[in-house]
């Protein structure tokens, strides 16, 4: 008889103590005649505890983490279907809409983006796409992949979309029937005027597709009042939830276009004509896919918390904490790249001082403080840090930690700072007009 896959002879070693993810963890090593000597029998993963102040994911609230651990039931169970209906109503509250088709796509925010484009864009459609950062560029690629013709309104990184440019472009392309733009550009921290852009689109008989991945739950978003047609977001930012779900909402004008398509939607999984049978069935839900049951528990809990706080109070909390962070950063001599009137409160792009290696600072913050900041993307790579104050990450303790840690690490690298003055500036702003 041959030996078993793993030899009964084992030896144990301790993991490298320098590995912060595995401190005091024992790793078992097995030898065998079928596997290379030294094969590791992998144990349960225990992640380090971090403070997440980058562009996402954000810190997840303990109530949301607890919801993930609730018993899994079937995705067509009557109790789960009841929860689905509650979830839709809670998302309507967050989006400020009465749209019947308001639901979470069972995938991350990028799938929310694709859901909008594959359903609303047909081959040959002209789509005006506003690009003022990375995610406007992704909208353009989605148009191309759906067979549409993108007409680009090229903006400036770190600035809002220019409504005058949009008006001129739509006047020059009267056959365009869609306008796509990012309300909250995560790559820069710029906030565009979604209300004004939607008004321009309506004047030109265009539907709007709006990226609200970073804005939902963090800054004003009024789907119905502003006349937005299709909006997508993500669960992992200002909703204090885990990554992996993409809330979307479609107005009646958008659904009419979906129903009247001349061609079949290129994606089976994201085809709204099929998905609606699962999320919008009045009597019996049709089977479409196995929903991520526990992840939906988590989103439900995060939205219950949003309702408890109140959506407008949530917006004000993010704005108040942004003002405190800004005060501390300015006291350190740091500058935010986005003009104040166009700035997102929940995502702050900060210029890296001359002579400082931004990656070294982020590495030291992670090593010494378990604090994560975001890297610059695209045109801003190596030039900025992106500091997030999203959802559960938007707390006074996090602001004080971030400002104090930045002051210490910049000083260690030769940049002159006054940590005491910066922290005092934060505290003073936190005490001023606290919500």
From TrEMBL:
Coiled-coil intervals: none
Q: Looking at the keywords, is Nucleotide-binding present?
A: no
Keyword Nucleotide-binding set for record: no
| Leader peptide range in chain numbering | none
Specify the Aminotransferase class V domain's residue ranges: 79-365
Report the residues modified as N6-(pyridoxal phosphate)lysine.
237
Residues noted as binding substrate in the record, renumbered to the chain: 386
* One GO process term, biological-process aspect: glycine biosynthetic process, by transamination of glyoxylate
Cofactors demanded by this protein: pyridoxal 5'-phosphate
Any idea which GO molecular function terms this record carries? Answer: alanine-glyoxylate transaminase activity; L-serine-pyruvate transaminase activity
Q: What InterPro entries does the record point to?
A: Aminotrans_V_dom (IPR000192), Aminotrans_V_PyrdxlP_BS (IPR020578), PyrdxlP-dep_Trfase (IPR015424), PyrdxlP-dep_Trfase_major (IPR015421), PyrdxlP-dep_Trfase_small (IPR015422), SP_NH2Trfase/AEP_transaminase (IPR024169)
Q: Which UniProt keywords apply?
A: Aminotransferase, Pyridoxal phosphate, Pyruvate, Transferase
Say which family it is in: Belongs to the class-V pyridoxal-phosphate-dependent aminotransferase family.
Instruction: Please give the name of this protein.
Output: Serine--pyruvate aminotransferase
């Amino acid at each position: 008889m041959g030996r078993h896959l793993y030899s009964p002879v084992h030896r144990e070693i301790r993991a490298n103590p320098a590995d912060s993810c595995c401190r005091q963890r024992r790793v078992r090593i097995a030898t065998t005649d079928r596997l290379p000597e030294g094969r590791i029998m992998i144990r349960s993963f225990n992640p380090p505890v971090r403070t997440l102040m980058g562009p996402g994911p954000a810190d997840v609230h303990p109530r949301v983490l607890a919801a993930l651990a609730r018993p899994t039931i079937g995705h067509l169970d009557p109790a789960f279907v009841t929860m689905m209906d509650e979830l839709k109503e809670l998302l309507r509250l967050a989006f400020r809409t009465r749209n019947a088709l308001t639901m979470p796509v069972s995938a991350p925010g990028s799938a929310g983006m694709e859901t909008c484009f594959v359903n609303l864009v047909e081959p040959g459609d002209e789509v005006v796409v506003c690009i003022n950062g990375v995610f406007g560029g992704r909208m353009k690629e989605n148009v191309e992949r759906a067979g549409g013709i993108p007409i680009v309104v090229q903006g400036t990184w770190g600035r809002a979309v220019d409504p005058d440019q949009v008006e001129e472009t739509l006047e020059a392309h009267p056959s365009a029937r869609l306008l796509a733009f990012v309300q909250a550009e995560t790559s820069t921290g710029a906030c565009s005027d979604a209300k004004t852009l939607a008004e321009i689109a309506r004047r030109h008989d265009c539907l709007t597709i709006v990226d609200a991945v970073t804005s939902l739950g963090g800054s004003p978003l009024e789907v119905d009042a502003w006349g937005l047609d299709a909006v997508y977001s993500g669960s992992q930012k200002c909703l204090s939830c885990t990554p992996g779900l993409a809330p979307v909402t479609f107005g009646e004008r958008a659904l009419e276009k979906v129903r009247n398509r001349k061609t079949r939607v290129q994606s089976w999984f994201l085809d709204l004509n099929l998905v609606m049978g699962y999320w919008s069935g009045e009597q019996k839900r049709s089977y479409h896919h196995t929903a991520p049951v526990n992840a939906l528990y988590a989103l439900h809990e995060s939205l219950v918390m949003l309702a408890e706080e109140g959506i407008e109070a949530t917006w004000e909390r993010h704005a108040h904490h942004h003002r405190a962070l800004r005060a501390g950063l300015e006291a350190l001599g740091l500058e935010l790249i986005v003009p104040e009137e166009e700035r997102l409160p929940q995502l702050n792009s900060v210029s890296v001082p001359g002579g400082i290696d931004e990656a070294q600072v982020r590495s030291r913050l992670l090593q010494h403080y378990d604090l994560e900041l975001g890297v610059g993307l695209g045109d801003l790579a190596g030039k900025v840090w992106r500091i997030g104050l999203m959802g559960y990450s938007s707390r006074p303790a996090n602001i004080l930690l971030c400002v104090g840690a930045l002051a210490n690490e910049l000083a260690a690298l030769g940049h002159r700072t006054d940590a005491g003055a910066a922290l005092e500036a934060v505290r003073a702003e936190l005490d001023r007009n606290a919500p």
